[in-house]
Design a protein that fits this description.
The structure is a single chain. 41% of the residues lie in helices and 0% in strands. By secondary structure, it is an all-alpha fold. It has one domain. It is globular. The chain starts with 24 loop residues before the first helix and ends in a 7-residue tail after the last helix. The structure holds iron/sulfur cluster. The site of iron/sulfur cluster has 14 residues, from α1 and α2. Pfam families: Whib. Keywords: 4Fe-4S, Cytoplasm, Disulfide bond, DNA-binding, Iron, Iron-sulfur, Metal-binding, Transcription, Transcription regulation.
């Protein structure tokens, strides 16, 4: 079974995971979506997928686009 079939967000409003802004009501949406992700059994798979496929919009694996961007540009531990 593909990991996405176990996603908690399948039963949530998809718009919750794609706020139009990080300010005002959009900020609250991000926090609500992240709260769903924290309970999701496939959070790590989802985040891995988002990073590998450069998903630049919405909440994936409990992260915002800015957080994923930072993770992708951060130096890896042990890298030379
Ligand atoms: S971690 Fe969040 S965005 Fe990813 S599948 Fe789970 S609920 Fe959906």
């Amino acid at each position: 079974m593909h990991w996405s079939r176990r996603s908690l967000c399948l039963t949530e409003d998809p718009e919750l995971f794609f706020p139009v802004s990080t300010e005002g009501p959009g900020r609250e949406q991000y926090e609500q979506a992240k709260a769903v992700c924290r309970r999701c059994p496939v959070q790590h798979r989802c985040l891995e997928y988002a990073l590998n496929t450069h998903q630049m919009y919405g909440v994936w694996g409990g992260t915002s686009p800015d957080e994923r961007r930072a993770a992708m540009t951060a130096p890896r531990r042990g890298a030379r």
